[in-house]
Protein 1
Amino acid sequence: MRERLGRPVGADAEQTRRRILTAAMRCVAEVGYSQTTIREIARAAEMTSGSLYHYFPNKSELLEATGEEIEDIVAPRLRAAAAQSDDVVARLDAVLDESQRLMRDHPYLAAFLRAARAGSAARSRYPGSRALREVVTEIVADAAAQGTLAPGASPASVVEAVCALTRGLSERSTTLPPEPYAATLAAAKRLIRGSLFAR
């Protein structure tokens, strides 16, 4: 008798849903956004495609849910990191450090985000961007209120620069060994400290 794949005995629906989302993240990270299929995700989640469709009606909704899951992972950690200090630059340093830890704790996260950005050019938002942008916007608004932005720097431009820098660092985390990545992160922090904020 052939073993039936689907929800394991004793697993609840939420555990199975998370297993599917983790499998989707891994598949997109490994083969790309457009190349990922429901069949591959189901196989990675150790279930049949038919069972997977009980949770998500199509690939688009599944990948959208994966993006929301990433927001749910990223947002509280970035907010907690930013809350560790009252100093604006220290808060940004903490956000960059937490971003590095997120990439380490979730090995497929950086590759998934890169693939999602490449595969969803029509969308204005992609996973992880909302949480990062909200946290950075709050920090930069505080800097503007305290008068610690560099002369002539507009808050919107600083937010864009920090978000772009953070996304770039997350992509480099997938290709650089730990020591060169740490040096790159340190250089990015010096750049932010020296260029975007007044001493």
Note: The CA atoms of residues 22 and 66 lie 8 Å apart.
Protein 2
Amino acid sequence: MIEIKKYAAIDIGSNAMRLLIVNIVEQEGKEPQFNKSSLVRVPIRLGQDAFTVGEISEENVDRMCDAMKAFNLLMKVHRVESYKAFATSAMREAYNGKEVVDIIKDKADIIIEIIDGKKEAAIIASTDLHHLIKTDETYLFVDVGGGSTEFTLFSNGKLVNSKSFKAGTVRLLNEMVCDVVWEEIEKWIKINTADFEEVTLIGSGGNINKLFKMSGKAQEKALSYIYLNSQYSFLNSLTYEQRVSELGLNPDRADVIVPATRIYLNAMKWSGARHIYVPKIGLSDGIVKAMYYGNI
């Protein structure tokens, strides 16, 4: 006999908002299976408001309410039994973030929790990484978002250290990441990886997923530093319009993919990593697993 539970996760990021609905298949004597049933992504760039003006605009509050009403209806249609909605960097920094949470609760009946960078990194790290991480190797897990980037170092199957930096794609687009932040990231990576002979990167986020898809590689294969560097040069040589019309990138992906690639390349350079694995995981996946195992 099998039992199927339906859980949902809402990830309110700086570049987009996502609703993930998952079927959790339970069978006696076996590990539970987490099967994606539906994923809806809405490109509301909250970071553009939060990082440049300091508040979420009235227009985007209305768009968020509409999106959350739609997410609520979708969860009802799918018969979701439990959900969590987490907001990250943009909502953390907008001075009206808590006010927006109250408005959405009132108008869309969705309860949102604004989480800090440390909790965000911990939730993402609680995903399916244990299937990928070999106990005798060292990995630097890098999750690039619109407002922040989370770095988590694993060695011998255990978490060594983790840190969140205010260096995300939307910030970079708006030239809001100063040299000091880059220096802090470089220092943190070099200090934390110094004792390990070989480090492999694991990449998370919509941009690295897109880059991996464009490579045409099988899911279990890695991208090399050389390949990623050549892609960066290629993407950088194209205009925003060319990335949309010739590569078929979504308008809200075509601009952020370049600064995102720069973050991954720097992480590889400073850690000495030659390869990056892209296991198609993110905050929403982590939320569902953390909910199921009672960690949040």
Note: The first helix runs from residue 46 to 52.
Protein 3
Amino acid sequence: MTEPFIGEIQLFGFNFAPQGWGSCNGATLPIRQNTALFSLLGTQYGGNGTTTFQLPNFANRAGCNQGQGAGLTRRNIGETFGNESITLTQGEMPAHAHSLTLYNQSESSKRAASPGTGNSLSVPNSSSPFLPNVQPNTQFAQNVIGVAGGSQPHENRQPYLAINFSIALAGVFPAFG
């Protein structure tokens, strides 16, 4: 392998950082022992800037380019953003309907006591599986279909593959162009 640039980030398919590399896990490092790397990273990823600085943290994160793409907000190097999970509000849900068609089987020989393809469960001899003596085409009560999810968040991360992000702690100091 060629000698890396100090601060270069590489992906490795094994679960440790090779010699001369550090895991991109937000670790706090002393400036005195890593002056070259600190001169490149500064406190972009954290630290107090006088005795410590932090490495980038790729734990539960995906990388993206700095700057601003068309129609996107500006992203600064070292900035973290996004959510691992999110709770949708009613205003964020697309408009849609949940239609339900019910058929009352008047022939008792065709009724079944358990679910089956093309069958539904209903109270015997009722005009509705929900309420007795209701006329066809009657509106459901407002609370028959309601909010689902219990205001709990759902998974919001993109598909991922666990890989080890590592940063070169030693190597060639990159020249500024």
Note: The CA atoms of residues 88 and 94 lie 11 Å apart.
Protein 4
Amino acid sequence: MATNYQSTDEMVAAMDAGALAKVQADLADLQAKSADLADQYLRAKAEAENARRRAEDEIAKARRFAVEAFAESLLPVADSLEAGLLIKDATIEQIREGAQATLRQLVAALERNKVLAINPAAGTRFDPHQHQAISVVPSELDANTVVTVLQKGYAIAERVLRPALVTVSAPK
């Protein structure tokens, strides 16, 4: 009986050693996988941070170059004004023609840069998002409609830079 007992102990010890070796191998495997996942996480985090930095740089460049493009489109207007001022004995008609040509250049430059005039026609419904009523006047037009435009407004990409100054018809 002692032999069986000793043999059973050896068998249990052998099974325990095999199980222990398997558990140790599984632990080593899991530790390697954990280290690999931690490395992947750190790389992904670094890549996300680099992408964020690149996006911020691109936005800053886009803003800077947008202003440069706008300024560049206004240079011909400045050139025209300077050229007009160099003419010493210009007639009123020449000054008028030069001013009109320069104004056309300015309007074209503004439109190229998405700056559009807000100039409602008489009878247009008053829009508080685009118009600023300076006064209310009696009129044959329906109530709350534009009667006259005192000063054009301007919008850029559908965002109002300056509302149009208008008079509005009074309720009847």
Note: The beta strands are 115-118, 131-137, 146-151, 153-156, 159-162, 164-169.
